[in-house]
Amino acid sequence: MDHIAAAGPYSAEAGYLLQADGDMVPSPGNRKDHSLTVDRRVRNLAGQDGPVAVPGSPWGQALGLRGFEGLRGYLVVTSRTRPTEAERSLLATLIRHTAAALSVAFAHRRRREEALELHRLREERAALQRQLIAVAAELAYRRAVHALMADVAASGGGEEAVTRALHGLTGLPALVEDRFGRLRSWAGPSRPDPYPEPDPVRQNALLNAAAREAGPARIKGRLIALVRPHGEVLGMLALVDPRGQADEHTVLALEQAATSLAPELAHLRNLAEVELRLHRELADDLLAGTDETSAYARSEAVGHDLHRSHYIVVVQWSDRTADDSFAQTVGRAASAVGMRSLLTRRADHVILLADDRPHARALYEALILETGAPSGSIGVSARCDSPDDIPQHYQEAQRALEVRRHSRKRYGTTFFDQLGLYRILGPGNDFRELEAFVHEWLGQLLDYDARNNSTMAETLARYFDCGGNYDETAASLAIHRSTLRYRLQRIREISGNDLANVEDRLNLQVATRVWKIVLGGSG
C-alpha cells in the first residue's frame, strides 16, 4: 500500500486480509473518510474483483489477492485518472506478486503456529509427568483448599472472605473486580491508591484474552480466573504475581476460590436484576401516568424518594442503540456524578427520573468518558413536583432533546425551562395551525424546492441559525458567499417577503424553526 503510487497514478484506498472465519479485517493504514462505503462494497463482492466508487476519484477497483489456496484479501486502488493499459498491466503484476508474498507469509505463519502447538503439547506432557510424580501431595493440598473454601462459602463471608482466604493460602495479594474492571475486594499488601479507573476497551480485551484460556490466565503480572457460573462473565478473581511465583498449587487455590465465589456473584447479580426491573417498571408506570398513592408506596419499596422534586432527563447518543447495555452505561454515568434516579428506556433513548436538577454539563461529560464519543444529546424537563405531572414533564424533556438535536450545536444538554420561544412549539400545540403558519410563510419556497430539487428553505433556515452572518452561513452550507447572495435574492423573489422587514424576518425565522423542529423539516 505504501508503494502503490510507484506503479502509476494510483493511491491505496484500503487493504483487507481474509481471516479463517471468513471475516475481512481492514488494514490500520486504510483511509478513514470513505471507510464505511468501501467496506460495504468489498464485502458485497463475495470474492470477485470489481469497481469501487470513491468520491473524488474517477477510477477505483477492488483487486483480489489470490494464492494457491484461494482468496487471501483485497487491495482497493483508486486513480486520479483512468489508467492506461500499461499502467493496468503493471498494477496487475504488483497484485500478483503481493498475493504470492501473502501466500508465503500465511505458510510461514502456519508453520510457526504448528511449532507453537508442538511446544504446547510438549509442555502439557511435561506437566502431566510432574502431576503424576506429585499426585499424592497435590490430592492432599486439593482436599485442604476445597475444605477451606467450603467453610468460607458456608459462613456467608462473601467476596471479602474469599479474597482473605486466597491471600492466606498463596501469600499473594488477592482481588475481585467486576466485569467492568472496578475493584470490589482486595486482600494483602500493595493495594493501589487510588485504584485505576477502568478503560472499557482494555477491559474487554483482557476478558477476551482470559476467556480463551482453559484455566487461569497470566496477564500483565496477574493470574486471572474469570467468574462465570453459567457462561456469562460476572467478574474476575486475580492474584497479583509480577515475579511469576505462582505454581500449580497456587493455580488450584485460585480455581477453587473462583468456584466458591461464583454463587455469591450470581446471587448479587440476581438481586441487581430484580432491583433494576422494579425500578424500570415504576419508571415506566410514572411516565405513562399512575395512581399517586401507589407510586409513593412502590418508590419507598425500591428505596427511591418520590416525594422530592424530580426532573425528567432524556439521553440519546447518535452512534449507540438505546439497548440494555447503553441504559447501564447511562446509569453508571449518572451514579458517577451523584444523580439519584429511576432509569428506563425507549426505542431510541434512555430516560432518567432524577430527584434533583442535573448539572448543566456533568452527565454529558461523564457519558463522553463512558462511551468514548461526544456525539450525544440530552434533554431535561422543568421541575416536577408531583408524580401526576411526570408524563407532561416527559414531553418537555423530549422537546428539549429535539431542540438540541436540530440546533447548530447538536451535542450537549438542553433544559426545557431555557428554551424561550421554542417552549410553545411542543407536542401539546395545534399542529394544523402550525402547518398553516408554515405554509403561509414557507409554502412557496417548499413548493419551489420540491419542483426543482433545490434547498431554498434549508438555506433560509441556516441563514437564520447563523444570525444572518453571510460568511458563517456560506461555510455551514459549503457554498461560496456569492452563491449565498444569489440564493437569498431568489428567496425574496420566490416568497415575496423582504428579509430586511422586521416583521417578515421574525415570521420567517419562526416558520423555519417550526418547519424543522415540529414538522421534522418535511415538505
TrEMBL record:
Domain CdaR GGDEF-like: from-to ranges: 291-403
UniProt key word Coiled coil: yes
Record key words, sorted: Coiled coil
The keyword Coiled coil belongs to this UniProt entry's keyword annotation: yes
Residue stretches in coiled coil: 111-138
Ranges for domain PucR C-terminal helix-turn-helix: 457-513
Top-level taxon of origin: Bacteria
InterPro entries linked: CdaR-like_regulators (IPR051448), CdaR_GGDEF (IPR041522), PucR_C-HTH_dom (IPR025736), PucR_C-HTH_sf (IPR042070)
PANTHER family in the cross-refs: CARBOHYDRATE DIACID REGULATOR, DNA-BINDING TRANSCRIPTIONAL ACTIVATOR ADER
Sequence similarity: Belongs to the CdaR family.
Protein name as annotated: Helix-turn-helix domain-containing protein
